[in-house]
Design brief:
Elements (H helix, E strand, L loop, with lengths): L18 H6 L54 H10 L3 H7 L10 H13 L5 E10 L5 E9 L2 E8 L4 E9 L3 E6 L4 E5 L8 H13 L10 E7 L9 H21 L12 E4 H43 L14 H9 L5 H51 L3 H12 L5 H62 L3 H12 L5 H29 L1
Parallel strand pairs: 5-8
Antiparallel strand pairs: 1-2, 1-7, 2-3, 3-4, 5-6, 6-7
Helix pairs in contact: 2-6, 7-8, 7-9, 8-9, 9-10, 9-11, 10-11, 11-12, 11-13, 12-13
Keywords: Coiled coil
Organism: Strombidinopsis acuminata
Protein name: Inositol phosphatase domain-containing protein
Length: 529
């Protein structure tokens, strides 16, 4: 399975392909997942109606002349003169003449054949120069490609040296160029739009911006592709010189296209050739400028908010009469903190606001102290009046309920006269003592009454029990039956003060009758036997 991108242009096949076969061709595969490397992500840009020249088969390809095959020992091209000629070119013809020596560089036979084939394959005929390079996409995959520069665009072409044919190409109009960066190892071309599939770094940045809801990076260095020299090592210009020539030719072609735009053409800015250090310096200066602008906007907003807060605070201080709630010192706290955090905020304004805030806080403290003293005075007078009224009422009614409430309020109040508090306490204690004496006397009378009632009940019960016992003894002596005697004896024992002689007499009679009943029972039992 090839890791190359789907072809943007059909390979070199006959143009009269049947419609049925074209319909059966599989569609381009979707973009690869982030865990798989792709070699190049390119999209078809050549119109479908463009008729491409058919490429000769490898069997009919003529071998390169011996004069065109340069060895590693050939003299290097005058790169400095070529760079100067490119810079001084005032027309496309002069630019083509300045780059004529590029085809004399010591390319390998396969590279030289590929450059020639690619120049004739592309639809544009105004070819300026061609270069065999290593293209590095955003997945950091190095791919051999042919770059062909024309008057309106440049083409990145995939050439198969084994089959001797072009597989596909990608066209980039020159107005799409934004910058050309000379790196340590090659040349980075920055474009206005994405060139191929996005790499993992862009995907990660997009995910971070999506999660954090931050703005995605959008500058001229967002979409890039890197090219490196593919000249055989040890011969001809160095890789750095090759990249210099490519960058100079791309920049000059863009300038000439900008100067020769037709009527109604869209204006564009030709790309600048910069180094990596210059790109970092540009980004650093841009970031510093954005930070300075943010600081300026924040400084102006903080100063405006602080001035408004100062005006509100002054208005609250000048309002008469006022209470502590009308002294709006808190309105300065947040604007002051914001102004102090702002860069290079007006120090005079901050000092004025801090001084005003200190004055308002001091005035607030004084006002709060005065209001507290006033509340204490009002409460003291009210508590004093209530206590005096309660003392007068309690002295007359001898009821200390209202006096207790008044004393509790007077103790909580500040600076109530101690003489008044002492008089109220003494009266309360006096009334409490009187109530206690009355309560004890009532309790003693109740106890005596209950004792007399109990003694009367005991006397009545004793008399009744005695009379019942005497009647029971008389009845038992006559009837010799102890039924009523037992009941009377039980009641007499519970009663208090029953005569002991009567109880002994009843007990003896009961014992005597029981003994008689026992003897009679034994005699009856003996008789029955």
């Amino acid at each position: 399975v090839s890791l190359d991108d789907p072809p943007e242009q059909p390979s070199e096949q006959p143009a009269q392909q049947p419609a049925e076969l074209r319909a059966e061709q599989p569609p381009s595969p979707p973009p690869p997942p982030p865990d798989k490397l792709v070699k190049e992500d390119e999209q078809a840009t050549t119109p479908a109606e463009a008729v491409l020249p058919a490429a000769p088969t490898p069997a009919h390809r003529a071998p390169a002349p011996a004069s065109r095959m340069r060895s590693a020992s050939s003299e290097p091209c005058p790169v400095s003169e070529m760079s100067e000629a490119i810079a001084q070119a005032a027309s496309f013809d002069e630019l083509v003449a300045a780059l004529e020596d590029v085809q004399e560089w010591p390319w390998s036979p396969e590279q030289e054949a590929g450059i020639k084939r690619c120049k004739t394959y592309i639809p544009d005929r105004d070819v300026i120069a061609g270069f065999y390079v290593m293209s590095i996409n955003e997945w950091r995959v190095s791919q051999p490609r042919v770059l062909v520069l024309t008057r309106n665009a440049y083409f990145r072409i995939k050439y198969d040296p084994q089959a001797g044919k072009v597989e596909h190409y990608h066209k980039t109009p020159l107005p799409e160029l934004r910058a050309l960066e000379k790196t340590l190892t090659g040349l980075k071309v920055y474009l206005k739009t994405q060139d191929g599939h996005s790499g993992p770094k862009k995907w990660a940045s997009w995910m971070v911006a999506k999660v954090s809801r931050a703005e995605a990076r959008t500058d001229e260095f967002q979409h890039a592709r890197e090219y490196r020299s593919a000249l055989p090592t040890g011969a001809g210009p160095s890789p750095d010189q090759v990249c210099d020539i490519i960058a100079a030719s791309f920049a000059k072609a863009s300038e000439l296209l900008r100067e020769n735009l037709p009527t109604g053409g869209v204006l564009f800015d030709p790309p600048n050739v910069i180094t990596t250090l210059e790109r970092k310096q540009i980004l650093s200066e841009r970031k510093a400028a954005a930070r300075a602008e943010d600081e300026r906007a924040e400084r102006e907003a903080a100063e405006a908010e602080l001035r408004s807060a100062v005006a509100v605070a002054i208005a609250s201080r000048d309002r008469q009469p006022k209470t502590s709630g009308e002294i709006n010192h808190a309105v300065l706290a947040r604007p002051l903190r914001r102004a102090k955090r702002a860069v290079e905020a007006d120090a005079t304004l901050i000092d004025e606001a801090e001084r005003l805030k200190a004055e308002l806080e001091e005035e607030l403290r004084e006002r709060l102290y005065a209001e507290r003293l006033e509340r204490e005075r009002v409460e003291r007078e009210a508590a004093t009046a209530e206590l005096e009224a309660a003392i007068t009422y309690a002295a007359t009614s001898r009821d200390n309920a209202s006096l207790v409430r008044a004393l509790k309020r007077a103790r909580k109040a500040v600076d109530v006269r101690s003489e008044l508090l002492g008089r109220g306490e003494d009266l309360k204690m006096e009334i409490d003592a009187e109530k206690k004496a009355e309560r004890e006397a009532a309790e003693e009378a109740s106890r005596q009454r209950k004792l007399a009632e109990r003694m009367e009940r005991e006397r009545v019960e004793t008399q009744a029990a005695t009379a019942e016992l005497e009647a029971a003894v008389s009845a038992a002596e006559t009837s010799r039956d102890t039924t009523w005697l037992v009941k009377a004896l039980r009641r007499a024992r519970r009663a208090a003060g029953v005569s002991a002689d009567l109880l002994d007499r009843a007990e003896s009679l009961k014992h005597e009758i029981d003994l008689e009943k026992k003897v009679a029972a034994e005699e009856a039992r003996a008789a029955n036997q």
